[in-house]
Amino acid sequence: MKTVLHISKVINIIALLCLIWLGYGLMLTGILQILAAVLFFIAFPKEKLIYIYFTVVAIFFLVWEGNPFGWQFLVILGLMILLTYTIHTKKI
């Protein structure tokens, strides 16, 4: 479980570093963060914040209009912050 949490943290950091490439990095960041969230969920299925994260991700994709720089960009930033907080504040 500790190894999965560590891998999830590393993937999340790499995902945040991908933002350097702006638009293209945003897609890669999203993919890597969802991967990190799935790994975190496998390790800690009772964590409530990860359920909130997946719920907001689902809602985001349901209302997304295809423009990554519209008002939905605020949701993307919020998701990045929520997942980073959830992963990096978890104590074992």
Question: How do the helices and strands line up, and which of them pair or pack?
Answer:
Blueprint: H1 2-17, H2 22-43, H3 48-63, H4 72-88
Helix pairs in contact: 1-2, 1-4, 2-4, 3-4
Structure overview:
The protein has helices at 2-17, 22-43, 48-63, 72-88. It is an all-alpha fold and 92 residues long. The model has no long low-confidence stretch (mean pLDDT 89). The radius of gyration is 13 Å and the shape is globular.
What fraction of residues sit in β-strands?
A: under 5%
Characterize the overall form.
globular
User: How many strands?
Assistant: 0
Mean pLDDT: 89
* Largest sheet geometry: none
What Rg do the Cα atoms give?
Answer: 13 Å
Write the H/E string, N to C: HHHH
Distance between the termini: 9 Å
| Discrete helix count | 4
Explain briefly what this protein structure is:
With 92 residues, this protein is an all-alpha fold.
Which features characterize this protein?
92 residues; globular
